[in-house]
Amino acid sequence: MKNIFNSEKVQELKHLLNKHERIVLTCHMRPDGDAVGSVLGLWHVLRAMGKDAHVVVPDRVPRSLHFLPGMKEIAVNTQYDPYCTRLVNEAGLIIMCDFNTPSRQGDLAPLIQGASCDKVLIDHHRGPDIKANVVFSFPEMSSTCELVFRLIAACGYYGYVDKAAATCILTGLITDTQNFSVNCNNPEVYEIQMRLLEKEADKKQIVDEAIKATSYDALRLNSFALLERLEIFEKHRSAVITLSKDDLKKFNYQKGDTEGLVNMPLGIRGIVSSIFLREDNDCIKVSARSKFDFPVCDICSDLYGGGGHLMAAGGEFNGSLEECRELLISHFKDYDRFLPKNIEKLEIS
Length: 349
Ligand code: 5GP
Ligand code: MN
Hints:
Blueprint: H1 7-19, E1 22-26, H2 33-48, E2 52-57, E3 75-76, H3 81-90, E4 93-97, H4 109-114, E5 118-123, E6 134-137, H5 144-155, H6 163-176, H7 188-198, H8 203-212, H9 216-228, E7 230-233, E8 238-243, H10 245-250, E9 273-279, E10 284-290, H11 296-304, E11 307-309, E12 312-317, H12 321-331
Parallel strand pairs: 1-2, 1-4, 2-3, 4-5, 5-6, 8-9
Antiparallel strand pairs: 7-8, 9-10, 10-12, 11-12
Helix pairs in contact: 2-5, 2-6, 5-6, 6-7, 6-8
The protein binds guanosine-5'-monophosphate (5GP) and manganese (II) ion.
């Protein structure tokens, strides 16, 4: 595995880890497999090193990730606000994983950003906009978990990786690459998987729980979404799914139930982008995916103040679901120039 790091930065990270006993690990809101996998994976390693480490997340972890070892030790800011505040205030070092801008932490952002302790950022989103003593920003990584593993190896901490840590870290690799189907052309991704399997990471459990498992309600909700709430905009090669609060209620929606839904229309031949608009309690959550390097991150940042990766991005809209949909449809034409050149020849079929 190639060393991708500046050695001074790795030394600075090691120095900070040696200096501090109390360490808080934190990630973005609506945490996914890569966010939780990276903080919990590092948490296991830091615990094995004898550190007083804690994981603080902005809001609840979806059920598909409850199998992760250490999950019960996570402090959730929306549930244990004073406890999270105490942990952050007592920390000498905060390690932020899998986000590039404070707003991705929602209500937890002022606490984390306001803390005057040492900080490290480990992330794979473009253009980090967060102050920290050391920033490890590598947008070319498949996942933050890949980056975390490389950092552990570069620091010489591989010996501290046990089965629990390996399972958490492999989870981020698997979920962010959709089980090794996107963003995984770098052969080293498979070397890292091999190293994690050598540590007995439970791949079967990860795939069963984080990728395949669903509930009856969730299966019905996703089926309903595809059958009744999917629109195809042929000219723009886009698929749009909208789910209202009422739709969600009808199927007893739980956090994480629509994970993966946005990917499904991308399977249609000739479709280049898929955008999912979901009416949450606090906003319309936008989730976008694409093929052929079509920049859905631009759509998310231009229209919804969000971002992410070129072909997997998200954002939020304050207003009605219909307004959110209208805004998107009225701007589709601005992005047609990014469609593949020979797209007319490709039938939607
Ligand atoms: P998802 O669609 O799975 O929620 O997110 C896809 C990608 O976009 C992830 O890398 C995620 O971090 C990013 N993303 C999702 N929502 C937002 C958002 O509201 N703001 C920004 N900046 N990025 C987001
Ligand atoms: Mn990620």
